Amino acid sequence: xxxxxxxxxxxxxxxxxxxxxxxxxxxxxxxxxxxxxxxxxxxxxxxxxxxxxxxxxxxxxxxxxxxxxxxxxxxxxxxxxxxxxxxxxxxxxxxxxxxxxxxxxxxxxxxxxxxxxxxxxxxxxxxxxxxxxxxxxxxxxxxxxxxxxxxxxxxxxxxxxxxxxxxxxxxxxxxxxxxxxxxxxxxxxxxxxxxxxxxxxxxxxxxxxxxxxxxxxx
Length: 218
What we know:
This protein is mainly α. It contains nine helices and no strands. The chain has helices at residues 3-20, 27-34, 38-44, 48-73, 76-93, 99-107, 109-137, 146-166, 174-187. The longest helix has 29 residues, at 109-137. The termini are far apart.
């Protein structure tokens, strides 16, 4: 039996559980929809809990690959502009807590805390070289400790997301929360503050007239 089959099971679990939650997907459901026997399932996984752990590991790896592309291949200004656009997507992304997140919090609390810790650590690890790059280019404040700044940004990011996900009464303010959170995180590290120029900036689109896309300070 190949590792490819194991990858297929994990990938299917990610797609299915993200839509309907972990509790709503049984081992029988997985085997039936993939056309495999339960014996085959247990060759790769001791239990459904192990499948959930490997599913989260896959999600973490995919997110890290995405971050590596963003901070590695794109210039600093482009990444900041895309962060500013995050507030525009917030209303769609956080209209309701994804079923998989709800189930993790309720039925797998220890695993959820561990997963959140892995995400924060991964973001921190990749933010350090990004901040150092921005400091070298003169975009970020050079007096800041890149290591400490990366830790603060990583935890602030997830605190902002949890504020939106875990407090339904604040969903009506999610654009405001996202915009202010992103503004605080970005403004705090910039050598030259972002200056809103028009109405569009109040919706999460921040641009800096003092910095051009070639990373030169004007």
